[in-house]
Amino acid sequence: MQFGIFSVGDVTPDPTTGRTPTERERIKAMVAIAQKAEEVGLDVFATGEHHNPPFVPSSPTTMLGYIAARTEKLVLSTSTTLITTNDPVKIAEDFAMLQHLADGRVDLMMGRGNTGPVYPWFGQDIRQGINLAIENYALLRRLWREDVVDWEGKFRTALQGFTSTPRPLDDVPPFVWHGSIRSPEIAEQAAFYGDGFFHNNIFWPADHTRQMVELYRERYAHYGHGTPEQAIVGLGGQVFMRKNSQDAVREFRPYFDNAPVYGHGPSLEDFTEQTPLTVGTPEQVIEKTLKFREYAGDYQRQLFLLDHAGLPLKTVLEQLDLLGEEVVPVLRKEFAVGRPAEVPDAPTHESLLKAARAAQEGVNVA
Amino acid sequence: MKLVVVSAGLSVPSSTRLLADRLAAATAGRSAAEAEVDVEVVELRDLAVEIAHNFTNGFPGRKLAAALAAVTAADGLIVVTPVFSASYSGLFKSFFDVIDPDALAGKPVLIAATGGSARHSLVLEHALRPLFSYLRAVVVPTAVYAASEDWGAEGLPERIERAAAELATLMTGLSTPATPVDAKRAGQAGQAKKDAFTVVPFAEQLAALAAR
Predict the structure, then answer these.
(1) Is B200 on the interface with A (CB under 8 A)?
(2) Domain locations in chain B as residue ranges
(3) Is any Cβ of chain B less than 8 angstroms from the Cβ of A116?
(4) Minimal Cα–Cα distance from A188 to chain B, Å?
(5) Which of A205, A215, A274 shows the shortest C-beta gap to B199?
(6) pLDDT band at B212 (very low <50, low <70, confident <90, very high)
(7) Distance (Å) from the C-alpha of residue B202 to the closest C-alpha of chain A?
(8) What is the mean pLDDT of residues A304-330?
(9) Total domain count for chain A?
């Protein structure tokens, strides 16, 4: 099972000091956080993609390419890549390039985005959101799998004799996750292709996540990719830890109360009770995270949101120490207990390459 | 059959709730003998904080989720608001802002309001009726307004009876399974609601795009 972090990339004033980091500081902080993630033994770093203030990560492959050069093992991913408003041709090119630079340590998560004006800013119509996700992704798959593509669709100029370069590393396209909080169409899309399904699992009650994951698992089996238990599931989570539970609550409360998404709304206590947020000791985080399996089944990837709401870099790095030293080792051990042998790990470049070679040998033998 | 009453009265006791109860009793009394009417009252006052949090959180708390589910599953609705600043109250509107926009489609709804004087009675026609038309509900022709003076005057009981009769007829006509085929269909619709997610097979989604 993979453990990692995902960043929204918000530039938010620290409510306890009133200080707002510069964009440069925030971007460099994201890099430092990714490096620290590798150092403490995490597997994945994923960045969001946004095209409006107060967010900085508009250019994910630029950032991930830089992080790739400064890390050895970390898998670089996105949370999410906007399949609706990005040109699928550019996604195909950018992520294939990143694959080569990062020696295959790349996957990505498709999402539709949650900011309405991004659609018109990029020449698209939000009412076509689902259709854009479907058509653009169908083209993206072909660009990675066919050397020469002739294509015609509804939303993009036609392609005749087009070859997306560079070709994917070892002719193995990056593994793709589809992220959605509440659109069954996206769970269906992920299931159809046998891709991964990621539920952000942060802002909604567990019961909602359960329904979406169940739907995906059931449809994954329907399309013949394996049993429902073999479907590739990822979940988000959100934590703030200190050795002493009361210290964690006291320190995190001003950040929670002023956070961009849920600030000035529910109480920290209500939100902790109703959503997967955990504010407390590493033991409490372990206890709550292990419960995710009760409603999502045995899953493949757990990403935590740590660096948001104006938390200073120093604090985030301390969180990563706690996560890497005290939480993830226990989670790795506990999640392995009772995990059926047929439940696969999250696909990586190596595993996909091996599968592709095995399939090729099968063809050659035949 | 399930009748759900949404009352946005704020005081206790409330004349809005009083009107709501009168309308509910009259409707239950009108329904055909074989169709037992189960009445559930949703008091928005008790949900005010959760409704506000639904706006800031993006999801309903437990009590609000139960109320939204009850309204969505109802065979008929009675909705009653006090008149505030020439319209429905903000709390009343907020409840219908957080419900799924399709939840009321095709549902018989009786609209009613209370106010200090009769001068605001057209709020029912100019504010409530368009709101429920937007939500594609079937609003009964008679809307019931009760000013303070109406509680001591003639006419209110008759308007309550007329509106209740219209709602009871629509509830029977629109939602009682009349034939085995309809019963089966109604059962499926109920199942779909319960499952919350319905899936269009992906091949159909792809084909729909290719066809254009």
Answers:
(1) yes
(2) 2-176, 179-212
(3) no
(4) 6
(5) A215
(6) low
(7) 6
(8) 97
(9) 1
Give me the pLDDT at residue A60, please: 98
pLDDT in tens, A239-282: 999 999 999 999 999 999 998 877 788 889 988 988 889 999 99
CB contact under 8 A, B209 and A188: no
- Asked whether the ipTM of the predicted complex exceeds the cut of 0.85, the reply is no
> β-strand B2-7 against A44-47: which pairing, if any?
unpaired
Instruction: Please tell me the predicted confidence (pLDDT) of residue B153.
Output: 85
Measured at the alpha carbon of residue A98, what is the angle toward residues B202 and A110, in degrees to the nearest 5?
A: 25
Neighbours of A126 (CB within 10 A): 16
Q: Of the candidates A134, A189, A211, which has its C-beta nearest B209's C-beta?
A: A134
Rg, C-alpha atoms of chain B: 18
- The tokens for A213 are 């994951």
Domain containing residue A34: 2-365
Per CATH, the homologous superfamily of domain B2-176 is Flavodoxin domain (3.40.50.360)
What sections of A40-150 are H helices per DSSP?
Answer: 60-69, 88-101, 118-121, 129-145
Beta carbons of A221 and A231 less than 8 angstroms apart? yes
User: Residues of B with CB below 8 A from A211's CB?
Assistant: 196-197
Cα distance between residue A312 and residue A20, in whole Å: 10
What is the reported pTM? 0.84
